[in-house]
Amino acid sequence: MYGKAFAPEYQGALTTLSVNASLTDVLAAGTEQLRAAERAGEHGEAARCGLAVAEAHRRLGRIGDADRAWKASYRAAREAGDTAAMAWALWSGGTLARQRGSFPLARRLLGLAAELGERGGDIVVRGYSLAGLAETGRIQGDYEAVRRLHEQLLAEARRRGEARHTVWALEGIAQIHRNTGSYDTAHALFAEAAEIAAGAEDRRGHAWALRGLADVVSVRDGDVERALALLSEAESMCRAMKLSSALAYNHKMRGNVLYRAGRYAEARGMYERALTEFRAMDEPRGQALSRLGLAKSRARLGRDRDETAAELAELAGVLERIGLRHAREMVARAQEEFGIGADAGAVGVR
């Protein structure tokens, strides 16, 4: 039913690159072809090679370089009058904005990308851009608003037999079910995503699906060793492809699994590791979630109650400003877990 996964963001002279190519290899090849296109004055080719450069930088956590690259790709596409290439550049920029926690900008850029994709006759970039809008809403916790869009995109991807996009949509819907307590449904969807990704040789999608499965196995079944084994399998894929962001989220999830198992010192170490990784790539959502896990672990290990209260109150403010509704609810649950009022701050607990 599904063919081998491919990476539509690798365009122009880079279409032969595998979806599983190491990001450092993608960056090297993309930079070489981009420079050649610029020397030849081929703006359209420069735009499409520049897209791969932007995406490699983003996934490697090199935020400043990614920001410059997608904007350069957009300018080259505009110079060439290539509407579809402009859409792809905006998609990359919108995805980067979401990664940086700039959700209003992400929605604006992804919305424009979807419009240009439709105008330019590129149904793939239109689909990826709508998917980006759906993921942005899901990350913020607007489940009802985006559930239908996720399901619509899943149906479209299945109809086209597009494995990578099918896997993405399944994982998004699974995450909504996991976050709303429908663990059996979430497990089934993550398992299907993992199976399709493995068959299509989509290592990135497979790694994210295994991470989701590990989460459900941990929270639903309490099976710590199975969850850790799934995360180890996913981590090997992340390392092979140099997926910095996915690796950091893998480590954060390992912290979650260890925390649920009462292995607080080990959890603390994993959260500290993930926090360092997220800080290196300027990823605010990952930083906040790692800080939350770290605060809870330290509290379990005997940290002063007032210090815990102050940090949780600060995190609540951070997540409120970012606009992460689900994560804000996680802080509220942590405050309840430790018997700390939501209004407790740095001056102590009332």
From TrEMBL:
What SUPFAM superfamilies is this protein classified in? TPR-like
Q: Which Pfam families match?
A: TPR_12 (PF13424)
Q: Source organism's superkingdom? A: Bacteria
User: PANTHER family, from UniProt?
Assistant: HTH-TYPE TRANSCRIPTIONAL REGULATOR RV0890C-RELATED (PTHR47691:SF3), REGULATOR-RELATED (PTHR47691)
Q: Which organism is the protein's source? A: Streptomyces zinciresistens K42
UniProt cross-references to Gene3D superfamilies, sorted A to Z: Tetratricopeptide repeat domain (1.25.40.10)
What's the protein here called?
Tetratricopeptide repeat protein
